[in-house]
Amino acid sequence: MGDSITLTDDRTGATVTVPLEADNTIPSSALRALDPGLRVYDPAFVSTASCASQITYVDGQRGVLRYRGYPIEQLAEQSTYLEVAYLLIHGELPTADQLDAWRQDVTIHTYVHENVKHFMQQFHHDAHPMGILVSTVAALSTFYPDAKLIFDAEVRHKQIVRLIAKMPTLAAFAHRFSVGMPFVYPDNDLDYATNFLSMMWRVGSPCYEGDPVLARALDVLFILHADHEQNCSTTAMRSVGSSHADPYSATAAAAAALYGPLHGGANEAVIRMLDHIGTVEAVPAFLEGVKRGEGRLMGFGHRVYKHYDPRARIVKQTADEVFAAVGTNPLLEVALALEEAALSDDYFVERQLYPNVDFYSGLIYQAMGFPLEMFTVLFAIPRTAGWMAHWVELLGDPDQRIARPRQRYVGSSERTYAPAGQRAKGGDGGDTLPPPATARPRRD
Ligand code: SDX
Question: Does domain 59-398 correspond to CATH entry 1.10.580.10?
Answer without folding.
Answer: yes
